[in-house]
Amino acid sequence: MDRHLGADPLNIAVIGAGGRGRANLNSVKGENIAALCDINAKTLNAASKEFPNAKTYVDWRKCVDQKDLDAVVCSTTDHTHAFIAVWAMNRGLHVY
Known about the structure:
Layout: E1 11-15, H1 20-28, E2 32-37, H2 41-50, E3 55-57, H3 60-64, E4 71-74, H4 81-89, E5 94-95
Parallel strand pairs: 1-2, 1-4, 2-3, 4-5
C-alpha cells in the first residue's frame, strides 16, 4: 500500500456511482476501478458496463472489505460519509 504517485494505478472502490458519484468516477477512471457500489441497481449496472472488471456491491461494508483496495471514493449522501470513511480508514484505506 505504500505506493508512490505515478507508480502502478491505485485499486479504487467507488461507493455511490450516480449523480456526484459519476463525476467522481470520471475523475479517477485513470486508476484501476476495482470495486463499484450503489444501492440503485440501474446505476450500478450502468457503471459496471464501463468498468467490467470491477467487482460490484450493493452493501458498502462488503465493498470496503475487498482485500485488494488502496482507496475509497465515497459519493453517497452526506449523512452516510462518516460511517463509510471511518470503516475504510480502520482498514488502512485512503478516502476521498
